[in-house]
Hints:
2 copies of one chain form a homodimer.
Chain A: H1 3-10, H2 14-28, H3 32-44, H4 49-56, E1 64-70, H5 76-89, E2 94-100, H6 111-118, E3 126-132, H7 139-153, E4 158-163, H8 168-176, E5 179-184, H9 191-199, E6 205-208, H10 216-229, E7 239-242, H11 251-267, H12 269-296, H13 301-313, H14 319-339
Parallel strand pairs in A: 1-4, 1-5, 2-3, 2-4, 5-6, 6-7
Helix pairs in contact in A: 2-3, 3-7, 5-11, 7-8, 11-12, 13-14
Amino acid sequence: xxxxxxxxxxxxxxxxxxxxxxxxxxxxxxxxxxxxxxxxxxxxxxxxxxxxxxxxxxxxxxxxxxxxxxxxxxxxxxxxxxxxxxxxxxxxxxxxxxxxxxxxxxxxxxxxxxxxxxxxxxxxxxxxxxxxxxxxxxxxxxxxxxxxxxxxxxxxxxxxxxxxxxxxxxxxxxxxxxxxxxxxxxxxxxxxxxxxxxxxxxxxxxxxxxxxxxxxxxxxxxxxxxxxxxxxxxxxxxxxxxxxxxxxxxxxxxxxxxxxxxxxxxxxxxxxxxxxxxxxxxxxxxxxxxxxxxxxxxxxxxxxxxxxxxxxxxxxxxxxxxxxxxxxxxxxxxxxxxxxx
Amino acid sequence: xxxxxxxxxxxxxxxxxxxxxxxxxxxxxxxxxxxxxxxxxxxxxxxxxxxxxxxxxxxxxxxxxxxxxxxxxxxxxxxxxxxxxxxxxxxxxxxxxxxxxxxxxxxxxxxxxxxxxxxxxxxxxxxxxxxxxxxxxxxxxxxxxxxxxxxxxxxxxxxxxxxxxxxxxxxxxxxxxxxxxxxxxxxxxxxxxxxxxxxxxxxxxxxxxxxxxxxxxxxxxxxxxxxxxxxxxxxxxxxxxxxxxxxxxxxxxxxxxxxxxxxxxxxxxxxxxxxxxxxxxxxxxxxxxxxxxxxxxxxxxxxxxxxxxxxxxxxxxxxxxxxxxxxxxxxxxxxxxxxxx
Lengths: 341, 341
């Protein structure tokens, strides 16, 4: 845990305040180094970051965020590369965030992935960043949402959010994006059925990548069938496009499909409902994590949790009664705890 | 939302109480229909279920839970089939829970998967259940943990917990199991690197499935290299075994490796540390969700969340200030709210 942040929250000393001011200014000026430093702060999740994000937030709202998800081996990184080049070609400022499904134990990052990404970092107009979860459920969604505030306020026009895997957490991350591309590839076997069910409603655009491989027609027909029977709350019918990202084929079509969806989400009432939903859930998540942080910071609370967990383990107590006791501890004295600050 | 539960919580009427008693008794007697009904209740997540789970909990502690995870196409279902047969052959009562990465929007289940599972449901001694997330982060982990209480109290000796995908949520689910098998298959390409980083520390046993395919030696060498350099907190060095589940090859070896790990977690202090950690996190998660449920059940709160989300959307307010306001609402009046019950 970064001490600088925790101490900074309670009583911000002059040098730290100066540092923060410089950092916020740097981000707003679009300085890559400041952006990178700020994202590291939000990734570490120190409570002091929210005051910095508060300063950045009024400068957001212009960036469009595109999530790219799909199973391992579907060519996400390559497609993200191509889309980045496409938008760079239009003179836009592009950010890429690659989200790693890192171990919840070690908090380490994926070396191989970072090395692969080096090849994309040659263009000085593209900011690239790999982000990893730091061990608690919901931590990655929060950190990603915060990083999007940073990039948006730094003047990025497009942010590509690449997530590895198709699990629930990737889904949560993908929902932070304004448009979500789901990649599928020919010949994935029976498991595509399972995957499709999970991603069907998060896909705003479906991309059949590696469309030069055998089985492209079949997978496209399957996706189109699923799109035609799905009824999204917002009424959107996703486009299905074919690409061969490794050959830079189909990228314009893909960008066009994204543009069509962008018009829908920004110009229609139904489309705007999605952002409202995202903001609503984000608020609730912020409150949930704050309650937990507040709880754990109280003296003796970690010990109480430990003692209760031991009693549950030995079957002296059931987990629900133990949670009752902890809940009483959260809500019984939180008023006092806030007054004593 | 099942009304029967919500109304049952506030003022349990006589017929509902009788229904609950019958259900609890049915579960404890191992009646499959009662078990299925109870799992549906915990899956729906009604607050009334905790009183039923409280009654079941003292009867738990005998079951051993084995998580099986791995990327799509690695043959999880087939291996789970084989392991179920193995334990059935030992005369044990076996439960299977297949966790679906379902859409967070619709809460639907995977038809294809359920159909596939029918083939396993012929043996009357095996209970099979597919579970899906119901839209909120952490909901699946909670529901899975609750379902394990149900199966444990119903006298199941072994529960196999199959998760699709390798995302953060699958990791959370896998951690609810007492032993976690990670399946890898030969020839997965570069993305295995990414996956391995995410799953390295959750794998208690690594299974090279489809070991008759080309590349088995290479993937085994890679996994063994990663195992040898990894340092788990509990000091365990995972076994690496080869299987061809579709041919029922290597199942005994796999079961032996599970047995070795089971002895470790049940007999050693380090091993027991894992369960303590699981219980600790479970407690915190229970408190987090209760706080949120408590918040959302207050009159006017849903409207406040909606109004704040709209202000954030229009950039009138930043999300952190909005969360401040909600947080004050949670902790400012929760004492009163509890007294008024």
